[in-house]
Amino acid sequence: MNEMNLSVEPGLAANAVPDAVAVERTLGGDRDAYRILVERHSQNVYRLAYRMAGNSHDAEEIVQEAFLRGYQKLKQFAGQANFGTWVYRIAANYAIDRLRQRKVEDARREQPSRESEDGSEIDPLAQLKDAAPSPERLAGSTQLALRMQQALGELTPAERTAIVMRHWDGCGIEEIAATLKSSTTAAKNTVFRAVQKLRIALEPFAEGGRAAKVMGME
What pTM was estimated for this model as a whole? Predict the structure, then answer.
């Protein structure tokens, strides 16, 4: 896979530069202009990638590949209204492909940034802040995060994409349908199925609304 340096030089990305201008400059041969787009939208794409992949190593690769594909296909973006939405969709589609491949191969690469005692990575975005957590609460939060990660892994690629986009990133049904290449009715049904599966999986943690908080559906 071709690699591309996506680092952003200090002071290069100016908030005053609109996406459309950065795209135009990039198409004109200014690679530094594309780094502005990377800096501006990488956090949102990484959040999606982490939820989809379940670990930081694969998430970083998804982000890298999404922006690389975006750069290679930038001419196709001409006339699109929102670059952030466009590259987000590229990342989602690539993540779906990876999930499907993973299920077929029954393999998963892991490079944990934070690990539990059994070696499973804990999603830092799902951890609840507590100034002075009790040992019981801390253990419960860890178990909930691990069960949430497991439950997400049990969803189909389409269900996982739908739940992440809808309930963590707040995407509309139309955008989810476009990403899944389905009708809005089918997308709604996919979201519903994913929610039901997660609620059943997290039912033991439902007391006190902790499960709803982690699911982003409180």
Answer: 0.66
Q: Give 126-152 pLDDT, tens digit per residue.
A: 443 444 444 444 444 677 777 787 888
Q: 183: helix, coil or strand?
A: coil
What is the Cα–Cα distance from 70 to 75, expressed in whole angstroms?
Answer: 9
Query: Rounded to a whole number, what is the distance in angstroms from the first to the last CA of the chain?
Result: 41
Give the model confidence (pLDDT) of 108-127 as tens digits: 445 544 444 444 444 444 44
At 121 the three-state DSSP class reads strand
**Given its phi and psi angles, is residue 119 left (phi above 0), alpha (psi -120 to 50 degrees) or beta?**
left
Q: CB count, 10 Å around CB of 4?
A: 18
Could you tell me how many residues make up the chain? 218
Q: Residue 73 pairs with which residues in a beta bridge? A: none
